[in-house]
TrEMBL record:
SUPFAM superfamilies in alphabetical order: NAD(P)-binding Rossmann-fold domains
Span of domain NADPH-dependent reductive aminase-like C-terminal: 158-284
Keywords linked to the UniProt accession: Oxidoreductase
Entry keyword ATP-binding: no
Domain 6-phosphogluconate dehydrogenase NADP-binding: 3-151
Protein's name according to its UniProt entry: NAD(P)-binding domain-containing protein
A Pfam family of this chain: NAD_binding_2
Residues making up the signal peptide according to the UniProt record: none
Source domain of life: Bacteria
Similarity comment: Belongs to the HIBADH-related family.
InterPro entries, per database record: 6PGD_dom2, 6PGDH_NADP-bd, HIBADH-related, HIBADH-related_NP60_sf, NAD(P)-bd_dom_sf, RedAm-like_C
Amino acid sequence: MRVTVLGLGSMGSALAGALLDKGVETTVWNRSAGRAAPLVARGAREAATPLEAVEAADVVIACVLDYDAVRGVLEPVTGSLEGRHLVNLTSGSPEQAREMDAWARSHGVGYLDGAIMTTPPGVGSQDMMFLYSGSEEVFQARREVLSVLGDPLHLGEDPGVASLYDAALLGLMWATMTGWLHGTAVVGADKVQATAYTPIALRWLGAVAHFITTYAAQVDEGRYPGDDATVDVQIAAIEHLIHAAHERGVDNSLPELLRSTMLRARAAGHGSDSYGSIIEVLRRPAGN
């Protein structure tokens, strides 16, 4: 299988490198000159133009700045792109992904939209997820080469779903890491090293994963029995965190935001429900 990678930033270069490591015939193209040299030294072929890059491949993988950039590169070469498969690993919104899919189909191009759930050093590891949505036929036809990049998961025929999951999962990541950093600052104020606190925090996340699994079923059912810990109990508990952080001079913006959301849930009648009931207020912006 012949693959072309369009875009040689840190991520695009990592994608091309993973393909080369597995012996995949790889062509690369980048708008700015000079980025391809290390990959060429490893066996890649550098295309001089997008047309040359497209014509060299059965599968074109795009990883550029944004969706407008993808269109800008490929619009002039749609005649050569017809009949090939385009895998777009450029970050964007679900709406942009759906528009890109419609554009690709109008030009006879099989399309998959994707989201890379790792940083460049993780590319090539089966521990890292690559999310795809769009054509099941394209996904199955190209699964072997997609598996070179990471563990490929197809989320359905709607091309916007991978981008939607990407946004949601990044939100989970940022919330989790910021919560960990806040906790690290709190214990660090009492001279606890981050490396001492973190193994305990990671073990705690295992319990949190169990809570999330329980609440997921409740969310789908729309019922939130407060069998484990109610919103009222959580409000009382978070006061201890806010107090501890305040006494140590640690910023409380995050726990105060969480407390305000819990208080909204209680005001909406969910005080005796589980923490999962907070989704009911998250589904409605504050003030609505």
